[in-house]
Amino acid sequence: MKTLFIEAIKKLSLNKDKITELESILPNTIYVAYSIQYKKLATQVKSFLKNKQIKGFSQVLGCSDIKTNAEAILLIGEARFHALNLALSSNKPVFIFDNYSISKITKQEIEEINKRNKGKYLKFLSSNTIGILVSSKPGQNNSSLAEKLRKQLELNGRKVYLFVSDNLNVSELENFPDIDIWINTACRGISQDSMKIIDCSQIKAEISKI
Question: Is 12 exposed, middle or buried (0-12, 13-18, 19+ CB in 10 A)?
């Protein structure tokens, strides 16, 4: 089945008072990212920030991994889970601007997520029955990695099952109580939705053996 993707762009007039406030709190070098609905606004913001050095400019997805030497990342949009993923993967301060408000991912938020992730990893180490989540969506499909993980984990004596889905409803995972923990190979944001889902990036020791 062919899939047609249509961009839905928000029609916004740049809030010059807020953008002036934003400019005053941003560091000198920034990377500008945006969710697709805010592409037009992001272009306007980039043009306005003439006193800042823009190190990069790109659309962001839930699974985006931005590597930059900028001092901070500026996300144009309102999806906070995008901002959290960027903060975790880049280890940079992340500011969020949606034309009406300015916010920032705090160190406390990142520390809380890191604590939860550590707990998940300890749970993974002691789990005997594991489910691996695989997305069939283009750009998120990591079936090859999932299959290699399955084989590696089975060599270590684990019981492993692959679950392939287009749209994942996390609550449906409760229908499989025998699964001790789930490994997510799709969008990283899914891993933040449950204490029983660990992102594949967290099990680097297992992946390094593949």
Answer: middle
